Amino acid sequence: MTLITRLRSIAISAQDPAVLLPFYEQTWGLERVAETTDGAIQLRARGPEHHVFTLAPGHGHSLELISLAASSPDAVDTIVQRARDAGAEVERRPAASTEPGGGYRAIIRDPEGRRLEVSADLAEHDGAPGRDFGPDRLSHIVLNCTDMTAAKDFYQQVLGFQISDWYENDQMVFLRCNELHHCIVLAPGRWTSLNHVAFEVESADEVMRALGRMRKAGFDTIWGPGRHGPGGNVFCYFVDPVGNVIEYTAELLVLADDWQPHSWVRNQENADVWGTSGGISPEVIAAMANPPAGERS
Predict the structure, then answer these.
(1) Residue 240 phi/psi, 5° resolution?
(2) What is the CA radius of gyration of the chain?
(3) Are 90 and 105 a contacting pair, CB within 8 Å?
(4) Rounded distance, CA 203 to CA 221, Å?
(5) What is the distance between the alpha carbons of residues 230 and 17, in angstroms, rounded to a whole number?
(6) Cis upstream peptide for 225 (omega within 30°)
(7) What secondary structure does DSSP assign to 189-237, as a single string?
(8) What is the C-alpha separation between 100 and 105, in angstroms, rounded?
(9) CA-to-CA distance for 148 and 151, rounded, in angstroms?
(10) What pLDDT does residue 125 have?
């Protein structure tokens, strides 16, 4: 049984979601679709997913929820049972949801305490928003992990993810749940935190158009444009007004059934095979480390 079919959405905290909302709507290109009873604002992309990004009230920068699409309600039940068998916390048992989008949902926690919602049968949108720019979907997220071995085991054994590739010595591990090269990437870190979140547009040309639009709005890249070795995707990285690292990306590799994972040397040439990005700087690395509030200078 295929358990997880795709990455749906993530929620991150913001001290005041309403203040950050104009950037994500007017500049980044998402559209508000719902607000939950606790004041979280859900935003959709141009694709059919009910929402791909949520701004939740909180201290800021923290990853509040990862939402994963399950193939069926039975798959949700299977994942919850696997989580219990592995000793993971089940925060919310499987049940029909009254939250925006409905569906059949459960919430479990991974070994570092991240909240993972697995869901089936959520409502989808019939058409695209009225605007003619913005991401089509959530592409992938990179998670900073304090225990890479435990994280790899959990995402493979409980959720059924497969390893597509990795950087030598597990400096990054690329995980997939469908034919796309990755939707979750694990990276070693001093803290359990969100490294960055990537949003997909339809082509390299659209990445460049997004770059031009962002520059006109006063937001230049911190890294990119370029093309990654692992995954083969085109990238441009930015920092939002409160310091979250976000990415426009396109052309992620679609893998055949006989794909063989392999190790990549971690160097600037593989991080950007075009050599156009100027290299990843210490400032970018520091931003992606995303320390918790008490550790920030």
Answers:
(1) -75, 175
(2) 18
(3) no
(4) 18
(5) 34
(6) yes
(7) -SSSEEEEEEEE-SSHHHHHHHHHHHHHTT---SEEEEE-STT--EEEE
(8) 12
(9) 5
(10) 95
Residues 34, 161: Cα–Cα separation, whole Å: 30
Q: Is 249 helix (H, G, I), strand (E, B) or coil?
A: strand
Q: Are 111 and 147 in contact (CB under 8 A)?
A: yes
Positive or negative, the CA dihedral 149, 175, 164, 162 is positive
Rounded to the nearest 5 percent, the helix, strand and coil shares of the chain are: 20, 35, 40
pTM above 0.90, yes or no: yes
In sign, the C-alpha dihedral spanning 185, 20, 240, 191 is: negative
Q: What are phi and psi of 74, to 5 degrees?
A: -60, -35
Q: Flag residues of the chain having pLDDT under 50.
A: none
Cα–Cα distance measured from residue 199 to residue 45, given in angstroms and rounded to the nearest whole number: 9
Structure tokens at 218: 């006063």
By three-state DSSP, how is residue 209 classified?
A: helix
Cα(29)–Cα(32) distance, rounded to whole angstroms? 10
pLDDT of residue 297: 60
pLDDT value, residue 127? 85
